[in-house]
Amino acid sequence: MRDLSATSVEAFYRRGMLEALLKASGVDDYPGAEEPVCPRGAGHFAGMMLDPAKVDVAALPFRLPGPATEGVMTTLEAVETVLSERASTLGVEIRRGVAVSAITQDDEVAVARAGEHEYAACWVVGCDGGRSTVRGLAGFGFTYLRTPAEGYVGMLEFDGGAFDRSHRPAREHLQAVLRRVSGTDVTLSEVHLASSFTDRAMQTTTYRQGRVLLAGDAAHIHSPLGAQGLNLGLGDAMNPIACLIVKRSSGPPAVGSAARRSESWRRQDSRKWSTASTRRL
After folding, report:
1. Whole-angstrom Cα distance, residue 76 to residue 72?
2. Is the dihedral angle over the CA atoms 78, 83, 86, 88 positive or is it negative?
3. Alpha-carbon distance 10 to 64, whole Å?
4. CA–CA gap between residue 135 and residue 82 (Å, rounded)
5. How many CB atoms lie within 10 A of CB 116?
6. Cα(135)–Cα(50) distance, rounded to whole angstroms?
7. How far apart are CA 5 and CA 50, in angstroms?
8. pLDDT digits (tens, 9 = 90+) for 159-193
9. What is the pTM of this model?
10. How far is residue 272's CA from residue 5's CA, in Å, rounded to a whole number?
11. Under 8 Å CB-to-CB from 198, ≥6 apart: which residues?
């Protein structure tokens, strides 16, 4: 499960995809109102739950009229399904299982080689995850972020590094850890889902190299706590699209200026997400 923030939910609403997303996420009621409704949840402050009935939605600054006033619990499958269906209706062909092996570019076009074919386009946007191939092929730097969490001290017990993120944790390993932590002889008969993660945060040194842009985990990685990568990825993926729209209407100088502003905003937002997550920890 993932928690889409109110900002991400509003992005789906503004593009006419919120109702489809809610249905795909198992949410039956769709507000459908132009005026904001009172949220069903308002979060917490220091563990004390806030009363949503006391939230004056009309007083929230910089919010356009609409039903997107709170987050939505969803899944990656639901988000991908809705976005894929929209792409299909727009005539976009999605080719899966085709790895990009090379990228070349000049002042006018970028060419990506995938499988046995080469694909030429005005722009290439790398959205291929934390181990992005596009990022490496295009020569983007990828560095660790320093967050203001330095100074915390913890006493930890490690398990000897029995696995890393490149391998799925085995049932035997999970059972041994659970027995050690719980002090019981519990037996795991089946593992339906298991993964591992770290709290490392990394970010590309620039979001644009010529005619190649980065978005999502290809541009920055975070701790998975709070779905910050998903929400920030959705947000910064909209910025390159806005830049390309400016390009079509105003020419190369406009896209360069818009891309620089977009990069500044996205780098600041990425640091804010990482800082907020670290402080919560």
Report:
1. 12
2. negative
3. 9
4. 26
5. 6
6. 42
7. 17
8. 555 555 667 788 888 899 889 989 999 898 888 87
9. 0.70
10. 15
11. 165, 223
